[in-house]
Design goal:
Largest sheet: 6 strands, antiparallel
Protein name: IclR family transcriptional regulator
Order of helices and strands: HHHEEHHEEEHHHEEEH
Number of strands: 8
InterPro entries: GAF-like_dom_sf (IPR029016), HTH_MetabolicPath_Reg (IPR050707), Tscrpt_reg_IclR_C (IPR014757), Tscrpt_reg_IclR_N (IPR005471), WH-like_DNA-bd_sf (IPR036388), WH_DNA-bd_sf (IPR036390)
Distance between the termini: 52 Å
Structural class: alpha+beta
Number of helices: 9
Radius of gyration: 21 Å
Organism: Bacillus xiapuensis
Keywords: DNA-binding, Transcription, Transcription regulation
């Protein structure tokens, strides 16, 4: 068990920095707070399983090909090409904004796809694989709003101060009723996020789509149309995944 924990610690160090960067054994030992001798044994075992790779000339270590292989296998099981990608691309073209697809994992979410809009002026994009707590951000809140009350209470008890729980409950109820969340991330620049949930055939939440854009120059009607486009795309994807009680705008 200790070996698994140490191996994952090494992987987290490699991912935390530039995934294309290679580290010396001394750097990894320092980052993981492990003796160099122990690090050497673990790295050799990880190389055998392609979890990491070694540059033979520089004697440096980086991420192995195993993660790409497994990621592509999982990616291929998401009905992505036939169900999700066409709707995400249409939304990107209609709104001229980069579109994100998030998926819940425990009490966090992970960005599993991003459709870039090359003409968008916002260039600070969230990275694929980026994890955030479910109570933070528009996309995450739309997912949390559709989860079971017991799970929501677990999140509240673990992460939310007592004096903020009633306010968050009201916010989640409104999100569930409206079918979307609009949050202002940066008041100065006018950057906001708009998100809608993705629901499965039994009504459970399986993800969320979201966009980031500057809404400061949008009229009230333009903003409403933008929100409707996001919600409609979420509804279409949910319908394709078997959810039947959606209303298209």
């Amino acid at each position: 068990m200790q070996s698994i924990d140490r191996a994952m610690q090494i992987i987290k160090v490699l991912i935390k920095h530039d995934p294309n960067r290679f580290f010396s054994i001394t750097e990894l030992a320092k980052e993981c707070d492990l003796p160099t001798s122990s690090m050497h044994r673990i790295l050799n075992a990880m190389i055998k399983h392609e979890m990491i790779q070694q540059d033979p000339q520089r004697k440096l270590y980086g991420l192995g090909t195993l993660w790409l292989e497994y990621g592509l296998i999982v990616y291929d099981t998401l009905d992505y090409v036939s169900v999700l990608r066409p709707e995400l691309e249409n939304l990107m073209r209609n709104l001229g904004a980069t579109v994100y697809l998030s998926r819940p994992i425990g009490k966090e979410s992970i960005i599993i796809e991003r459709i870039d809009c090359i003409n968008q002026t916002i260039h600070a994009h969230d990275k694929l694989g980026h994890r955030t707590p479910l109570h933070v951000g528009a996309a995450n809140l739309t997912m949390l709003a559709h989860m079971s009350p017991n799970f929501v209470e677990e999140v509240m008890n673990e992460f939310i101060p007592d004096n903020e729980r009633i306010s968050l409950h009201h916010r989640l109820n409104k999100i569930k009723m409206d079918g979307y969340e609009l949050s202002h991330e940066d008041q100065t620049s006018g950057i906001s996020s708009i998100a809608a949930p993705l629901l499965s055939h039994y009504g459970g939440v399986v993800g969320a789509i979201s966009i980031k854009l500057n809404i400061s120059h949008l009229s009230e009607n333009q903003l409403k149309w933008t929100v409707d486009e996001v919600v409609n795309s979420g509804n279409k994807i949910s319908w394709k995944m078997g959810y039947s009680t959606v209303n298209f705008v």
